[in-house]
Amino acid sequence: MAKRALISVSDKTGIVDFAKQLVELDFEIISTGGTFKVLKEAGIPVTGISEMTNFPEILDGRVKTLHPHIHGGLLAKLDDEKHLGQIADLSIQPISLVCVNLYPFKQTIEKPNVTVEEAIENIDIGGPSMLRSAAKNHKFVTVVVDPADYETVIHEISHNGNTTFKTRQKLASKVFRHTASYDSLIAEYMTNLTGEELPEKLTVTYELQQSLRYGENPHQKAAFYKKPLGSKFSIANATQLHGKELSYNNINDAATALQIVNEFDEPAAVAIKHMNPCGVGTGKTIFEAYAKAFEADPVSIFGGIVALNREVDKATAEKLHEIFLEIIIAPSFSKEAFDILTQKKNIRLLTVPFGEVDEKELRFTSIEGGMLVQDYDRYNLDHAEVTVPTKRKPTEDEWKALKFGWKVVKHVKSNAIVVNGIDQTYGVGAGQTNRVGAANIALKQAGDKAKGAVLASDAFFPFNDTVETAAKAGITAIIQPGGSIRDEDSIKLADEYGIAMVFTGIRHFKH
Which residues pair with 351 in a beta bridge? Predict the structure, then answer.
């Protein structure tokens, strides 16, 4: 039985050499369109699809491989006499190898100002159909979708006369992953086009970005996947300029750092430890911002991750260089800063495209057997219906500090309390099972700096004990959502202590 290979690729990387080697292994090559032209010009003997099907390509190429002479040749069971008889009666020739990759749908919709018509025309129909037919019949057909597999296929055929079943099975599984991913991108595009936010079926696809040594702990396997059309402002799109490979925990912490530092328009620096901020500072310069973030908690920042929203200059780099840090993330590093920081061989230096946040991005949280999906929490005080229920209103400086604290507390694990000034955190209470416990931690860390400072809470006060604790520490203003059935108790106590309290009407739980 003659060996036939059907080749039709959008990505033509290595395809001429692959086809030449197949011809040397006595394969007859069948091809279509642009691939046919490339192979013909390379001097490779090739037969057009129309010659095999006795039917012309029609509808501007939309229909060319959707034909029984193609799919019959792909799907016939070559160990089934009935199948063999049927294809012989219909003059259908078996196809033993398929090399296909698909129209560049992803690349098309990534282009600026792409039209819907252009996107639709780049939805491949014949390609996925051939791939699925060949992959389904992988007992007899070798199917190749990735140029990285060309060498393996040629090696096995040249040494064994055919690929092994194990290889064909692996290649078939790759095909089904590939077509599923391709269809997921199309589904996502069409869903966004129609404005459906939470459809009855959610199909998402991710591409392997990095295999990790382990997960949160050494006994857990892990990998890092990237969303193909995800937000560009992401650790998944970071460029690593220096240092050793990122770990699972590094990636989680870095993602948190980016979310917080992006809250600020002015120069800002954020230090992260275990997905919680341990120090946040802003200033007129990035040096001043980092100095305040460091001063906020010089103990916890050790071994942490720092994100800055301005280029790292020489002076800032010298200060960063003074302590052990796992990662520094910034839009860029000056040459002097890079030279200083790279004196430590392991520190990771990352750049990220700031200002390219995808507001439509969804947040996925996996649970065993399911997935929780929600918007990212991008709600800020510009959206809130702010009220001041206390007799005393915040001063101008207190307002500045309250806004600063509200930006930070949103990113602290609940129950969360932040004690801060105008441009610096003083204490962070994170992840406690009761709110007054979080307040005690934050106020203890703030120490004497709590006198005259403000306090931010991610959710309302169920009792007035947090107000009491804050007042005794010297807090002068509080920002919280409000909405407790005991709000009046907290308001009354704040009035007794002369504390200004702001209600935002919105909470920021973060679990």
Answer: 239, 330
The 10 Å Cβ neighbour count of residue 199 is: 12
For residue 171, give Cα distances in angstroms to 19, 132, 137, 147: 18, 11, 12, 12
Q: Are 480 and 459 in contact (CB under 8 A)?
A: yes
Are 413 and 431 spatial neighbours (Cβ–Cβ below 8 Å)? yes
> 276 - beta bridge partners?
273
Which neighbouring-strand residues pair with 143?
98
Among the listed residues 406, 396, 370, the one whose alpha carbon sits nearest the alpha carbon of residue 482: 406
Residue 327 one-letter amino acid: I
> What CA–CA distance (Å, rounded) separates 306 from 299?
14
The candidate with the shortest Cα–Cα distance to 422, out of 263, 297, 282, 272, is 282
Tokens of 117: 């018509």
DSSP state of 25: T
Asked whether the predicted pLDDT for residue 267 surpasses 90, the reply is yes
Task: State the maximum Cα–Cα separation within the chain, in Å, rounded to a whole number.
Answer: 97
| Antiparallel, parallel or unpaired: β 454-457 and 417-420 | antiparallel
pTM: 0.85
- Return the amino acid letter for 329: I
Active-site residue set: 136, 274
Q: What is the mean pLDDT of residues 101-114?
A: 89
Q: Report the distance separating Cα 305 and Cα 327, nearest Å.
A: 5
Q: What token pair was written down for 157?
A: 């055929």
List Cβ<8 Å contacts ≥24 apart for 341-347.
341/242, 341/312, 341/317, 342/242, 345/243, 345/244, 346/243, 346/244, 347/242, 347/243
Mean pLDDT of 43-67: 79
What letter does residue 6 receive in the DSSP assignment? Answer: E
Q: Which two tokens stand for residue 429?
A: 């209470």
**Strand 417-420 versus strand 425-429 pairing type:** antiparallel
CA distances from 505 to 387, 428, 453, 475, 476 (A): 8, 22, 22, 21, 20
User: SS3 string of 148-187?
Assistant: HHHHHHHHHHHHHCCCCHHHHHHHHHHHHHHHHHHHHHHH
